[in-house]
Amino acid sequence: MIKKWWQDSIVYQIYPKSFQDSNGDGIGDIKGIINRLDYLKDLGINVIWICPIYKSPMVDHGYDISDYYDIDPSFGNMKDMELLLKESEKRGIKILMDLVINHTSDKHIWFEKAMEDLDSKYADYYIIKQGKADTPPNNWRSIFGGSAWEKIADTNKYYLHLFTKGQPDLNWENKEMRNELYKMVNYWLEKGLGGFRVDAIAHIKKDFSYINLPSDGPDGLVDAWEYYRNAKGIEVFLDELKERTFKIYDSMTVGETDVKESDRLVDFIGENGCFSTVFDFCHVTYHINDDEWKNNPIEMVNEIRDKLFEKQLNSIEYGFLSNFIENHDLPRSTNRFIPENEIGFYSESMLATVYFFLRGIPFIYQGQEIGMMDFPKKSIDEFLDLATYQNYKAYLGKGFTEDEALKKINIECREHSRTPFQWSHDKNSGFTTGTPWFEINPNYKYINMKDQEDKEYSLLTYYKRLVKLRKSEEYKEVFIYGDFIPIFKEYDGIIAYERKDDKQRILIINNCVNKTSTIEIKENIKKTLLNNYEEILLDKENIKLLPYQSIVLEIN
Ligand code: GLC
Ligand code: CA
To answer: Is the predicted pLDDT of residue 140 greater than 90, yes or no?
Structure first.
């Protein structure tokens, strides 16, 4: 395997709107990130991924870009960005920006010109089709709900938007458009970025057969995934993108794409793939409050474990996956995986340990390291995200009552992870001196960074220990390049694996449920590298794992 600089990355994801406000307007900004770089350095991470900060009307919170070459004024300006790059570099931290090139904003100059003149070259930068009689070209559903087609006023033409109607999809079949994108990507790489997290990239290739499919819901629409997710031929576009941009700069790139078939991973990661790595999404649909799992935490753990191990084993021969438990599109991990009355230090540190030593790149999402939680709302009006409203409407359409629909939204909505960062128990959690753009979770009084900073047994301190161990000179080789071997699969509720190379063998053992479990270890324990309890209950070859206990052992 060719060694690359990014293989030892520990990435921290910043949702800039909610990270740190520096000027009292209630919106997090680039200067706020600069002010917190020392915090991140102390945490030990060496790469930051920042969600979009380009100029945007903010219909999808920055994922709708109206100017790729400018910073949105709510986040600062280009000087701030350049300073951020410089200050990060001083601290040995690389910056990844979000690269949103499946679509632009409908306020992007290309789209405006396209709408002004449907015969102009810009019309072909987007996907515009003739409607049928008075209906859209087909019955595809947008990923955020409703038709994926928007009618263009005074015509019988429609443009495609797989996300909100403020995010028209780009036509990747158009070479000139692609060249424009590559120029823009290189402009940013020239500025010294480490690379990109590449948004929604699985959707750039569309199957243009546009037939109506049998609908799968009361709205008459259909999720036509096979027509616009990793569609055949996407690898040609991905390859060109890499050759013309990322490869020239030896960038780190993280594709937001769920590659289901392992034999296709080779197109996406590895020495000839387009990206350095792609996310492993195998756990994202699980929620302990779903009817299916409510009383079955052990079954849920067992099922997730099997999927996780399958992904790990399938990816080894190709390259590295990116491992995460939280991001800005998901509720908080504790609420998703742990029954409510069992959320606490042990269960939280266990979740962290499970994924941190897997083969691949570990990601930490802002606030995860201090145990930030979901903030359920009393009324649908308290939410701000269009996707939330679309999902709510879809539940009503399926016959749910308003209360039932709100309950569903409170379980699954992505806005939970977007509440402002809880820095301290001071006013507005130390996030802003003004009025926060989104309500702060009132639990900041007892869940905040300041209170955990210097405590020996806080979650934050535990995360620092995790990072330190994974980065340590002594063990980093085995954690990065070592084999991955599933172990103890015969025990319910346990997720355990071995990382191994010629020199070392490390066991990572996690009791993922609220009961004790005794496992038998035949190997000789050389050293305890990590433990979220104070001791390990060892009796001859038997280890009694306490509820939610996680241990990392070196054996020989
Ligand atoms: C990605 C982003 C999500 C965004 C969508 C559209 O899935 O993570 O937040 O809404 O793309 O750009
Ligand atoms: Ca601000």
So the answer is: yes
pLDDT tens digits, one per residue of 343-363: 999 999 999 999 999 999 999
User: Is residue 404's pLDDT more than 90?
Assistant: yes
What is the phi/psi pair of residue 427, to 5°?
-50, 140
Largest CA distance in the chain: 80
Give the tokens for residue 494.
Answer: 């346990």
Tens-digit pLDDT profile for residues 188-234: 999 999 999 999 999 999 998 988 999 999 999 999 999 999 999 99
pLDDT score at 244: 98
Neighbours of 56 (CB within 10 A): 26
Per-residue model confidence as pLDDT tens digits over 243-254: 999 999 999 999
Q: In the predicted model, what is the mean pLDDT of the chain?
A: 97
What is the separation of C-alpha 541 from the centre of its chain, rounded to a whole number of angstroms?
39
- Catalytic residue, chosen from 98, 256, 280, 326, is 256
Write the DSSP assignment of 324-375 as a string of letters: -S--TTS--HHHHHS-GGG-SHHHHHHHHHHHHTSSSEEEEETTGGGT----
Query: Of 199, 267, 374, 415, which one is the catalytic site residue?
Result: 199
Domains in the chain, ordered, with CATH? 5-101+176-204+231-385+413-467 (3.20.20.80), 386-412 (no CATH), 482-555 (2.60.40.1180)
Residue pair 156/128 in contact by the 8 Å Cβ criterion? no
Mutational test site, ligand 1, from 60, 197, 386, 390, max ligand atoms within 8 Å of CB? 60
Residues 324 and 309: their CA atoms lie apart, in Å, by 14
**Is the pLDDT assigned to residue 57 strictly greater than 90?**
yes
Compute the average pLDDT of residues 287-312: 96
Give the Cα separation of 465 and 159 in Å (integer).
50
Cα distance between residue 348 and residue 532, in whole Å = 10
Q: Are 358 and 322 in contact (CB under 8 A)?
A: no
Tell me the chain's radius of gyration from C-alpha atoms.
24
Query: In this predicted structure, what is the pLDDT of residue 1?
Result: 81
Please tell me the distance from the alpha carbon of residue 206 to that of residue 172, in angstroms, as a whole number: 9
Ligand 2 centroid distance, CA of 324 (Å): 28
Q: Calculate how far, in angstroms, residue 436's C-alpha sits from the geometric centre of ligand 1.
A: 22
Q: What angle do CA 421, 427, 428 make, to 5 degrees?
A: 35
- pTM of the entire predicted model: 0.98
pLDDT at 102: 98
Give the whole-number percent of the chain exceeding pLDDT 90: 96
Burial class, 497, CB count within 10 angstroms (exposed 0-12 / middle 13-18 / buried 19+): buried
Q: Of 10, 100, 106, 97, which is closest to residue 66 (Cα–Cα)?
A: 106
Q: Which of 265, 373, 257, 375 is nearest to 311 (CA)?
A: 265
Amino acid at 289: N
Q: Which residue has the tokens 């027509």?
A: 227
Determine the angle formed by the axes of helices 402-412 and 386-397, rounding to 10 degrees: 140
| Cα-to-chain-centroid distance, residue 405 | 25
- What is the number of alpha carbons within 13 Å of residue 192 lying toward its C-beta? 13
